[in-house]
Amino acid sequence: MIPINIDTIGKNIKFYRSLKGLTQCELAEGICTQAQISNIEAGKFIPLSTTLFAISKRLEVDMNQFFHAFENPQYDYVQEFIQEVRRQTENRNYKEVFQLVTAEEKNKLFKSSSLQQFILWHKGVAIAYLYKDYTLAIKMLFKAINLTYNGKRNYTQEEIQILNSIAAIYDLKGHSTQATEYYERSLKHANFIQDFNPKIKVRILYNYAKAETTLANYSKAINLAEQGRQICIENGLLYLFEECTYQKGFCYLLQGEVEMGKRLIEQAVVLFRLEKKEELATFAIKEVEEALTTIQ
């Protein structure tokens, strides 16, 4: 008989929830409350067997896995893989992302639908940026989202991130109007999730603002960029704050409010340099000079 350790149960549930890309609210839906999930993960009490069974079904793991010692090298390997793929994606190192996911896509450790979804999602994104095959990339992302989404519920946090990627690739493809439709859908479903990750929401707002800028909807783009800035301020985030600041300033510039635009862009350039994003600072300065030449 496997001994019951409440810390082990809690850590494993949290681990599998993070692999699945679910928030505590999403995991709790129809099973228990978010507070109960929080207490279970914190090792404060052991849930009923029926609750554990329901959680295991939602997470697509055998319930017995919750009782195994957390120091499992396979768990560590999967977790490290996910963190590395996310880190390389955030740093726009798409060649590394492609190599990582291609190397593991047939690994038996990654056979669950959620992990297959994660691999397919990031492979599609890498293909879009590396090989510019936007049609194939979008096809892969829709396939990824359909691994878990059945159309009968709200999207999960992970699925919303895939929607955001679909929108971004439509924008890269030159289909900005279609991109804005997917950004709007992403935001709508994000608002249904109580503990939605603010970094993800900022990313959606920033990308959405860029698409609206392409469509010359500058007032809307300014509003979206400012929403992203406010979320950063409220949550103490630097993530994409300077990008949102730049996008807001650039839109002011394009609609003729030159002084306001230049002031915001100067702030963004300072922040880019503080964050050691010299390439972005240089790009921003060049783009502004070109815009000012056109305006004048």
TrEMBL record:
PROSITE patterns: HTH_CROC1. GO terms for molecular function: DNA binding. InterPro entries: Cro/C1-type_HTH, HTH-type_regulator_Rgg, Lambda_DNA-bd_dom_sf, PlcR_TPR, TPR-like_helical_dom_sf. Residues 13-66 form the HTH cro/C1-type domain. PANTHER family: TRANSCRIPTIONAL ACTIVATOR, TRANSCRIPTIONAL REGULATOR-RELATED. This is HTH cro/C1-type domain-containing protein.
